[in-house]
Amino acid sequence: MIDRPSAPAPASSPVSRRKPRRGRRVLWIVLSVAALLVLAVGGAGWWTYSHLNSNISSVDLNQAIGDNRPKKVVENAQNVLVLGSDSRAGANGDLDHGDVSGARSDTAMLVHIPEGRSRATAVSIPRDTLISRPECKDNDGGTAPAAKRVMFNSVYSLGGPACVVKTVEQLSGVRVDHFVEVDFAGFKGLVDALGGVTVTLDQPMSGAKGGLKLDAGTHRLNGTDSLKFVRTRYGYGDGSDLGRIGLQQQFMLAMLSEIKKQDALGNPARLYKLADAGTKSLTTDSDLASLTALSDFARSMKAVDPATMETIMLPVAYDKVDPNRVVVAEPQAGQLWEALRTDQKVPASAKKSPAKGGTTTKGGTATKP
C-alpha cells in the first residue's frame, strides 16, 4: 500500500451554506477514464514506455482490504471507483494558494461499465453523506475500528484509497474492480494538454468567495480556470455542495467529448502530452498499474460515448438530527445499487434524491433543477 501522510478528519461543514475552506474539493468523476483513453501508446519507444510507466503509483486492494468483499455478479461488467486527491503539498499547494499536510478526497464516483462496454453510468457520492465506515487499516499501519455516522469525506484522510474502496463496497454491495485517483496538478495538466475544454452555462457564475466569474454562454477554460469551475459552489445555483456535483458532471462530459473530438489516440504528440500529464498524478489499483494494463482497459472502453454517459447523484436526504448533513435515501439508493450490481438499467425511481442541489446536467449544459 502506498504511504500517505495522515490528516485530521475534516471539520464540521454544512451542506448548503458553510464556511469556506482552502480544502475545496473536486469530484473528478471520470476524468481518470479520460486519462485511460489516452494511454494507448503502442509503438512508442522503450524510453517513452519506461518513463510513463514509472509515473504511475499503485495500491494492492486485495492485500489492503482482504477477502471480505462483495461477490462479482456479472463477470464482464466493470465498476471503477474514481477518486480525487486534494493534497496541498508541492504543485497542488501552488494551485490552491496553500500548503496543508495530508491528502483528502471528499467525494468519489463509482463508474459502472456494463457488459458490452458501449455505455457507462457514473454515480456521485456527496462528500457530506453520513455513512457507516468499516474497520480499515489506517495511514499509520494500524487498524481503525468501524464507526457509524461518519462523513464520507473523512474516510480517505483516515485510511487512504483502500479504505474508501472498502467503504463504498460495504455501502453499495457492488464489487469494485478497479480504482483510479487523479490529483489537482494532474487535472490541470490534462486540460492544458488538450488546449482547454469548452463548457456552456445557462446562467452567470458570480465568482463569489474566490470562485470563477463567467457570463452565461459558452467558454473555453484552461487548466487553472477548469479547477475553479469544478470547485465552484457559492457563485452558482443555490450554493450547495450537492449543486456543485452538476457542474462537475458537466465538465467531465465536456472533457471526454474534447478528447474524442481531437482524436487524441491518433495524434502521437498530443497523446504523449496527455499520457505524461495523466500518469504523473495517477494512482491506481495494482492490476491497472502499468501502461499495458491501462492500454488494454482503455481499448476495451473505446465504444463508450460521452454523449450517452449517464450521470447520477446517489439519492440522499437531509439528516433529521443534523440538517447540514445528508444520509442515504431508501429505497432509492437500494434500487440504484441493485441495478449496478446486476448490470440492469437504472430505474427512474432510483434517480430521485429528496435532497436537492443547485444544478443538474442536461445534454452537457448546467441548468437549474
Written overview of the protein:
The protein is of the alpha/beta class and 369 residues long. The chain is 33% helix and 21% strand. It is built from eleven helices and 19 strands. The strands form five sheets. Strands 1-14-9-2-3-4-15 form a seven-stranded mixed sheet, with helices on both faces. It has a four-stranded mixed sheet with strand order 8-5-17-16. A four-stranded mixed sheet has the order 13-10-19-18. A hairpin with a 2-residue loop joins strand 18 (360-362) and strand 19. Helix 1 (31-37) runs parallel beside helix 8, helix 6 (184-194) crosses helix 7 (223-231) and helix 6 (184-194) runs antiparallel to helix 9 (268-280). The radius of gyration is 19 Å and the shape is globular.
Topology overview:
Layout: H1 31-37, H2 46-55, E1 57-59, H3 61-65, E2 78-85, H4 90-96, E3 108-113, E4 121-125, E5 129-133, E6 136-137, E7 143-144, E8 147-151, H5 155-172, E9 178-183, H6 184-194, E10 197-201, E11 205-206, E12 213-214, E13 217-221, H7 223-231, H8 241-262, H9 268-280, E14 282-285, H10 291-300, E15 310-313, E16 316-318, E17 326-328, H11 332-341, E18 360-362, E19 365-367
Helix pairs in contact: 1-8, 2-9, 6-7, 6-9, 7-8
Total strand segments: 19
Mean pLDDT: 76
Strands of the biggest beta sheet: in what spatial order? 1-14-9-2-3-4-15
Give helix % range. 25-40%
Largest sheet entry:
7 strands, mixed
Regions with little confidence, pLDDT below 50 for 5+ residues:
1-44, 88-102, 358-369
What's the shape?
globular
What is the strand content? 15-25%
Distance between the termini: 41 Å
Tally of helical runs: 11
What's the SSE pattern? HHEHEHEEEEEEHEHEEEEHHHEHEEEHEE
Rg computed from alpha carbons, rounded to a whole number of angstroms: 19 Å
The SS-based structural class is alpha/beta
